[in-house]
Write a structure and sequence with these properties.
Radius of gyration: 26 Å
CATH topology of the largest domain: Fumarase C, Chain A, domain 2
CATH superfamily of the largest domain: Fumarase/aspartase (Central domain)
Oligomer: single chain
CATH architecture of the largest domain: Up-down Bundle
Order of helices and strands: HEHEHHEEEHHEHHH
Structural class: mainly alpha
CATH class of the largest domain: Mainly Alpha
Number of domains: 3
Strand content: 5-15%
Distance between the termini: 47 Å
Shape: elongated
């Protein structure tokens, strides 16, 4: 949220009245039009206003990619730890699909699609930056093509958050499997800390505990 708030604070500026780089000599009340359009302030420098085109779009998409990165990592973890080999989580049936050949298999397709959507948003960010790059200062029609990635980026992120929220509400934690996964070596670092508390240097405690579990 802090990143999104920061991005909103950056882009919440009205360019209306800056024209194409040179500004305008007419006495326009740019503050009035900014207020009517719901902007917090105006972009006073015409060159800054033109240079922000493409950069603002890429910045918005970058902030969306950070949200999708969290969803990406969560999806990967849930895919791995819901596999029968671990079984820490049980996915709701309506969030899985059947295998094309294995009758018993439930594919975590929803999670896989959520994971992939992160890369889609990142590609939109690269697209916006690529379009804005290498352009001369001023108005360039190329920038119009950065609007579609932004709109699609918002749609994908909002939809992904809704799906992820529904999934989390309906996922089941297998406590028994989670407990069985806490084997002795998981606590090896704690063993080293206990030795340190007894006066043994950490490097020696590290070696001693490591030797025990490597045998």
């Amino acid at each position: 949220m802090r990143l999104m708030d920061a991005v909103l604070g950056l882009v919440d500026q009205s360019p209306l009245g800056t024209v194409a780089v040179y500004g305008i000599l007419l006495k326009l009340d740019r503050g009035m039009t900014a207020r009517e359009l719901g902007f917090a302030r105006i972009q006073r420098n015409p060159i800054y206003a033109q240079m922000s085109r493409g950069k603002f779009e890429a910045t918005i998409l970058h902030s969306l990619s950070q949200i999708m990165l969290d969803i990406n990592k969560m999806s990967t973890d849930l895919i791995i730890f819901s596999m029968p080999e671990f079984g820490y989580f049980e996915l709701p049936d309506r969030f899985t699909t059947g295998s094309s050949i294995m009758p018993q298999k439930k594919n975590p397709d929803v999670l896989e699609l959520l994971r992939a959507k992160y890369s889609v948003i990142v590609s939109y960010e690269v697209q916006a930056k690529g379009i804005a790059g290498n352009l001369p200062t001023g108005y360039n029609r190329d920038i119009a093509l950065t609007k579609s990635p932004v709109i699609s980026g918002f749609q994908i992120t909002i939809e992904s958050l809704k799906v992820a929220a529904r999934l989390i509400r309906n996922i089941r934690v297998n406590k028994e499997n989670c407990r069985s996964g806490l084997t002795e070596e998981v606590y090896s670092t704690q063993r080293a800390y206990d030795l340190v508390k007894g006066g043994i240097p950490f490097r020696d405690a590290y070696k001693e505990v490591g030797k025990k579990y490597s045998q």
